[in-house]
Design a protein that fits this description.
There is one protein chain. This protein is of the alpha/beta class and about 240 residues long. The protein has seven helices and eleven strands. The strands form three sheets. It has a seven-stranded mixed sheet, sandwiched between helices. Strands 1-2 form a two-stranded antiparallel sheet. A two-stranded parallel ribbon has the order 3-4. The radius of gyration is 19 Å and the shape is globular. The two termini are about 15 Å apart. About 30% of the residues are buried.
């Protein structure tokens, strides 16, 4: 994501296997600072480091901690919380969304509870929609490559699969939402990011969650932006 003149100027993606594709972006934009939330492993981290060194740019690698950037991290081992989840929590806390359930709907789905005082209480991880489809296709004989749609009462195998997947993911979000609502005694917002955010938001509408459901495609990037501000990096 590229932040300039107090606004996001664009967002893009490159394959995880080809981080060197960022070389052109770095050359074209000449950033003064880069913030990174990396959960792709040590090899990718090493290759990215080489790219940033080549470009001569200052880099901050986000590392989850017990406290910092307005978040109290209650993970048993705070440093093992995924950096992307940590960034999303920072963004939600600093943007005034808490208490909220922070959801990332991508390859995996994470569902995290953030209390009103910035305390990260804990969260869930479950397979995303594509992983669920793949698991059913590999583990059963007759549901491979069947297309379908989400329905109240599915009447085809493909639709039964699609409805089951999104009901399972939505139910996980609804369960965490109910727990946090009971714990906080306040209205709870659901903030969703990730490639499947729009689909999940539509599915959640059937659960009639009390409170607001927000979609924010820049959530992790906004967390990094808050970190930059905390570090005194010029971000205008």
């Amino acid at each position: 994501g590229l932040w300039h003149a107090n606004a996001w100027q664009g967002r893009g993606a490159v394959p995880v296997s080809e981080p060197e594709a960022l070389r052109t972006v770095l050359a074209d934009t000449a950033p003064s600072w880069v913030g990174v939330s990396c959960v792709a492993g040590d090899e990718i981290r090493t290759r990215l480091t080489a790219l940033f060194d080549e470009a001569g740019v200052d880099v901050f690698w986000l590392k989850p901690a017990a406290t910092g950037h307005g978040i109290i991290n209650r993970y048993d081992c705070p440093e093992t919380l995924g950096a992307d989840r940590y960034a999303a929590l920072i963004a939600c806390g600093r943007s005034g969304h808490a208490p909220c359930v922070v959801v990332s709907a991508g390859t995996a789905v994470t569902v995290d509870a953030l209390a009103g005082d910035g305390e990260f209480l804990g969260g869930m991880i479950l397979p995303g929609a594509s992983l669920m489809r793949n698991a059913l296709g590999k583990g059963t004989a007759e549901v491979t490559a069947l297309s379908g749609i989400r329905q109240s009462f599915p009447r085809s195998t493909g639709s039964a699969v699609e409805t089951g997947i999104w009901t399972a993911i939505s139910a996980a979000v609804a369960a965490m939402h109910a727990r946090l609502t009971g714990q906080s005694g306040q209205p709870v917002t659901a903030v969703i990011t990730g490639g499947d955010a729009e689909i999940l938001a539509g599915s959640l509408s059937e659960f009639a969650l009390p409170g607001t459901v927000k979609i924010n495609e820049y959530l992790v990037l906004e967390g990094l932006l808050w970190v930059a501000r905390d570090l005194g990096v010029p971000v205008a």
